[in-house]
Amino acid sequence: MDFKIIIVIVLCFILANSVLALKPTFIDPINPGGGGGISGFEAMLIKIMSWLWPISIVVAVLMIIVGAYYFIFSGGDPTKVATAKKVVTYALLGLVILASAIGIWNLVKLILGV
Predict the structure, then answer these.
(1) Within a domain: residue 44?
(2) Domain extent for 114
(3) What SS3 class is residue 70?
């Protein structure tokens, strides 16, 4: 693998781990706790995002495994090797975008004081 790709992967996991290590503070969407709480739409959005992030991480890791499977069983065929590289590249790109989205999400919450 190229050295730049390895650096990007390591930085992705460092960023994702530091962001995921933050303790989430979610307000109950059914009873937001009176005035000053999160509105129903925001609570619903937080709940959806708290489900989507772990699922998308699992899907990206599975796609990396599928790409590795394609690469192992390509038999040296250049088109199959290219397909395997594309699958792994797009899965890693998805992880980078996901880690960035998590970081931006928490940064906006920090700035807005939510």
Answers:
(1) no
(2) 62-114
(3) helix
Q: Cα–Cα distance between 65 and 87 in angstroms, integer?
A: 9
Question: How many structural domains compose the chain?
Answer: 1
User: What pTM does this model have?
Assistant: 0.57
| Residues 6+ positions from 28 with CB-CB distance below 8 Å | 43
Torsion, Cα of 35, 41, 44, 46 (10° steps): -80
**Alpha-carbon distance 114 to 110, whole Å?**
7
Say if CB 25 and CB 63 are below 8 A apart: no
Render each residue's pLDDT in the chain as its tens digit; 114 residues: 555 666 666 555 565 555 555 555 555 555 555 545 556 777 777 788 788 888 888 898 899 999 999 999 988 899 999 999 999 999 999 888 888 887 887 788 788 876
